[in-house]
């Protein structure tokens, strides 16, 4: 494939969300990491993209044409339906995740039915929590000692989360030692979400975290297509339930992931 063809594909990959990961580009282009870096360097020099941690985003002058949260709805299972699925494992995972939090620290919790299960166990820790989930905000409000931060953006009613337009940095100035997030699927290619819009939002959170802690029940380890959020090598800790298969556990450990069985 010629360089011009690869560059065209890179720009097309940016269209849905304004962000594309290196791992996604390797899959799309079937090119080496060194070749992709050179392609991105040329596009950046031409003012068409900006290279960021984990991939590339649309250059600032193109961001006004990106789809906004107000004009689209998210793919995937609505929150009210998915919250009843595999509830007992999710509750155990949430309890184990909360046990990793230190009193008084700042953390980030991405929206999701599994991350929501952390909330009852955070009472009394006096945490500062940045979250994009209105469900999580509601669960934390009764905890007088928990300080809550939310980003600006539009509300997606299906998931009850707040997302900003692609390329817009709407997060408060916040850095945290831990990010807790979920996923639609996990496999050899990495962590996946149903909707590319979620990928850009989660990458923004990852850029502000020292540790990425993934909360997924064992049903998420399936062969699935989706938008890749990150490779397994970018996940520090993964918490799941005891139904995970041995070969799935081996896959995670081979990538240096610390595995916690709830």
UniProtKB/TrEMBL annotation:
Keywords: DNA-binding, Transcription, Transcription regulation. PANTHER family: HTH-TYPE TRANSCRIPTIONAL REGULATOR SRLR-RELATED (PTHR30363), HTH-TYPE TRANSCRIPTIONAL REGULATOR ULAR (PTHR30363:SF55). It comes from the Bacteria. Pfam families: DeoRC (PF00455), HTH_DeoR (PF08220). This is DeoR family transcriptional regulator. SMART domains: DeoRC, HTH_DEOR. Residues 3-58 form the HTH deoR-type domain. It comes from Novosphingobium ovatum. Gene3D superfamilies: Winged helix-like DNA-binding domain superfamily/Winged helix DNA-binding domain.
